[in-house]
Amino acid sequence: MLAVDRLKKIEELLIENGSVIISNLSELLNVSEETIRRDLEKLGKKNKLKRVRGGAYLSETSDNEVPIRIREKIFLEEKQLIGEKCIELIDEGDCVMLDSSTTALYIAKNLNTSKKKCTVITNSLKIASEFENSKNVKVICLGGTLRKSTSSFVGYITTDSLQRLSADKSFISCSSISADFGVTDNHELEATVRKCMLTNSMKKCLVVDYTKFDSPSVNQICKLNDLDMIITDRKIPKKYKDILMKNEIEIVIVG
């Protein structure tokens, strides 16, 4: 297939699906992943798509979130390590809140295999499905408006439900972290759900990979000093470490 035909095909798939994954394109178009990366770079320069590690997606003006089907394919080892560590922090009989992040999905996967008995409150369709056949985990799935790009429920129905619930621990992620603005998110409604989860939990845990530091998004979830713990996969930049230690926020590094 000629390069021009390949680019046209990638554009068609983007329009059809909203996002593409490099490994899938490589197999479909019978070229190397490096060739696909160069193709996506060309389309990116023409503002045809947004590039991320592992793939690309069409960005809607109202929603800059990377689609979940791409996020599920990146930083897998880091998410697995964070997920394993979080299970150590969950006690038998706990009630925990998990947001719609793919990091929280890995917590759910590890919790499912751990056989611990607990209750999970979540706005994630994928996390709820993870426990479909579990005999040990009771699931409370928050209703609301289904946000298809993240397979999550958001909106006033979701937050109204959260107002009537409480948990021992919450594990949430975010789009980015800023020393000045705190924990932030690309999506207003998702940020509101995460804020409610933290507010209604006794212990508030942020689970993030190292790429989230120093790139503030628009919608604030909370200030850094609202947290009890940050669990991440790499050494935290010094300015964040100083702020966290000053506010007695526990830092857990995995891997």
From TrEMBL:
MF-aspect GO terms: DNA binding
Pfam family, one: DeoRC
HTH deoR-type domain mapped to chain residues: 3-58
Protein name in the entry: DeoR/GlpR family DNA-binding transcription regulator
Source species: Clostridium aestuarii
Matches recorded under Gene3D superfamilies: 3.40.50.1360, Winged helix-like DNA-binding domain superfamily/Winged helix DNA-binding domain
PANTHER family: AGA OPERON TRANSCRIPTIONAL REPRESSOR-RELATED, HTH-TYPE TRANSCRIPTIONAL REGULATOR SRLR-RELATED
InterPro entries: Carb_Metab_HTH_regulators (IPR050313), DeoR-like_C (IPR014036), DeoR_HTH (IPR001034), NagB/RpiA_transferase-like (IPR037171), Tscrpt_reg_HTH_DeoR_CS (IPR018356), WH-like_DNA-bd_sf (IPR036388), WH_DNA-bd_sf (IPR036390)
UniProt KW Ion transport keyword: no
Alphabetically ordered keywords of this record: DNA-binding, Transcription, Transcription regulation
